[in-house]
Amino acid sequence: MLEARGLTKYYSAIIGVRDVCFTLKPGTVIGLLGPNGSGKSTTVGMITGLLEPSGGWVKLDGHDIRDDLVAYKARLGYVPEEAQLYTWMSGDEYLTLCARLRGLSAATAARRIDTLLSIFGLQMDRDAPMSAYSKGMRQKVLLSAALLHDPSIVVLDEPCSGLDVATTLVVRSLIRRLAESGRMIVYSSHELKMVERVCNEVLILSDGRVAAHAPTAALREQLNAASLEDAFRTLVITTDVESVAAEIMTTITH
Amino acid sequence: MPQGMQASATIWAAAFLAAPAMLLSSQFLGKYSFLQRYYPERLERAIWSDRGLFILLSSGAIGIVCVVMWDTLFPGRRDVFVLGSLPIRPRVQALGRLGSLLALFVVFAAALNVLPGVTYAMISALTVTGAIRGLPAHLVASIAADAFVFFGLTMVQGVLLVGAGRRASERLAPILQMGTVLIVLLTLLFIGPLREATAVALERGNASDPILRWFPLAWFVAIYETIGGTSRPIMAALAARGAVWAVTPLLVTAALYVFAFRRLCARAIETPAGSARFFLSRAVSATIRTLLVRHPTEQAICAFTLRVLARSRRHRMLMAIYVGGALALIITAILPAFLRHDTGLFARPTVASLSPPLILSAALAVGFRALLAIPVDLPARWIFRSCSLTPLRVAAGVHKAGLLVVLVPVALSAWLSAAMFWDVSIAWRHAIFCAALSLFLLELLLLKADGVPFARQYIPGASRFHLLWPFYLSCFLAYTYSAAEAERLMLLEGDITTPVAIIVMLAGALACMRWWRLWHTPELSFEVEIPDETFKGFNLSEGLAAHAVATHQVNGRSNIHV
Lengths: 254, 562
Known about the structure:
The complex is a heterodimer of chains A (254) and B (562). Chain A is α/β, with parallel strands linked by helices and 254 residues long. Chain A has helices at 40-47, 69-74, 91-101, 106-119, 135-147, 165-180, 192-198, 216-222, 228-235, 241-253; strands at 2-11, 14-24, 29-33, 55-60, 63-64, 76-79, 153-157, 184-188, 201-206, 209-215. Chain A folds into 2 domains: 2-75 and 151-253, P-loop containing nucleotide triphosphate hydrolases (Rossmann fold), CATH 3.40.50; 86-150, no CATH class. In chain A, helix 3 (91-101) packs across helix 4 (106-119) and helix 3 (91-101) packs parallel to helix 5 (135-147). Chain B has helices at 5-38, 40-68, 77-84, 90-124, 128-164, 166-189, 191-204, 210-214, 216-228, 233-270, 279-291, 296-311, 313-339, 351-372, 382-385, 391-421, 424-445, 465-493, 497-519, 540-554. In chain B, helix 4 (90-124) runs antiparallel to helix 10, helix 14 (351-372) packs antiparallel against helix 16 (391-421) and helix 14 packs antiparallel against helix 18 (465-493). The radius of gyration of chain B is 27 Å and the shape is globular. Chain A binds chain B through residues 11-12, 45, 48-51, 54, 69-74, 76, 78, 80, 82, 84-90, 92-93, 96-106, 109, 125, 127-129, 131-132, 145, and chain B through 272-277, 289, 296-297, 299-300, 303-304, 307, 311-312, 376-377, 379-380, 382-390, 523, 556-557, 560, 562.
């Protein structure tokens, strides 16, 4: 079980996030939602151990992850928001690097890399440097790298960014299967429909604070919203969308 | 080279070569007065020789500038993507880029030559007319030599890009860069004989002299003399040749920009990605995995380190500079003997014939250590941060990469050179001695190395070379030439086992110290190192910077790059 209590992060005097709490049981998918700058990436950074919280803690099975970050990271799979890769490496080389960093044996690594590259349609380009890959191809490499070592906690930050429709559907199904097999999944995204379909519960952040945290269906009922998008509008969006669009049109045509 | 460091490195390199030219002018005043009074017949030759010195220093500096700015001389992918979507005609883009290249050249050429030109023109003038013509003569001759070097290199790069393609050009770039550095360093090391030989050839005035026909310095000194108003007929012909060689590369570069700009842009973005899979490299890496690096984490770090050194342009360029420097020193030791037809150099082991592998070892080991601190694609380091890595395993991977980069080529070159000139028994002993010393040096340099290589921000000046260069120079001389002399004596007496055993034991002790330190390091650090407090008194700004960083971190406000 992954627990976060009172997670707070300051950047100098600026608040990144304040007092974020949630509990993630095995087999559940939690969706992290929020507008730009609401603190999603900071929260993800603290959950993955990449950022040290200014306050609060994250515990895995009752142990603070910072007590043994090495052991925690061994159980973690992470897809970052941006596809930052060593683009002078080929997809095959990068996945081999990840597999070895995760301690997989050469034979297991080779077998899994071969299969994942085939599944994602990257076999033909496996030896080309990733600088030549499209955004979607790089995202597929990131997904493969995150899952290679069979992690028990999977943190996905915009995992479908740049993916084609078929692969997006595959990812959606994969997240369900990962959850069914007892893994804990954190899914951060702006795609509300996807979150609504794959997440058991959602955590909505706004201005670095938790605006709502509830099971997806319960949140819709609570706010009397037809969809998660409507609930999100009610909770977070304060601007008049139509008037902003109209203002942009006025600006560019005059 | 890290972002932002390119400009400062360029300026420092240029300043290093330009500073002597500025200082020398004042020293020549006394020399010329002395010669005019006591040896008037030698004055003209001395002036030619000194004019050659200014030309060589200036063109050497501009050559280094060109090497450092290599990747920015022609349009790259980013340029094409940024400018290509804008409504700007290719012709305008080409002229804009050509203009900026010319501006870069003019700025550096002017900075290198104007001040020495003014002072030296006044000092070297024998008549009033000479003084008036001296400044333009100095500027035109030096700038012509600079243009020959700078646009010569851009021309070669451009022709390669257009003719052979981007991939071939990128593969050949380190060789060209290393070659340029080699030529510049050799020129500096042989600057005295080169000037003297040119001055003597000019004095003889024999047009069929190979130096006057093939050595560019003679042509540019001739330009100097022609504008300065010489009466020697040979000078005009040589000056014309110099002018042609100064202008031709410039014209070819301009033509490449104007007529082949579309092609250059297309090459930048359309070059298909080459395969990274080669049978030989896979076989070698499989062998290394089986024999030397068995733990998965060590394999990952070792492979990553070797790939960065082989593929990152910055790292390749810097390694090429280190190796180029080493080759220049090796050639310096060997060339005079060849020129003198000295058969004794390789008849038996001498310092000159034993030192090359050690010079190579010093360059490779120091280069390897220095490059570990220079980051590559810093935002992509999240993969290391999100993995369960221990400092000990990471350090072991780096160490093994170091062994492959330093020990293997050093031992091979030592064995091959000794086997070629002497016999196999000496070859083995020479290879073992050089390998043992290389191992010791590597252990010493890696003593304080920790963290994932190429994954931290770079802080320049950590080696404090500007303060400790006499110490480093002494260490280098002791490591190369003194060690070679010691080896020569040991080879004469027949036993190198004991010294090698002592060196290996010292290396082992250093390795134990490193392992002990890493064993007590709980986790990997990805943050920048703070320069230690010891040097506060020596360099105020550095001490203050260190204090600022320390305070910043204590307050928990350090910027973290994920």
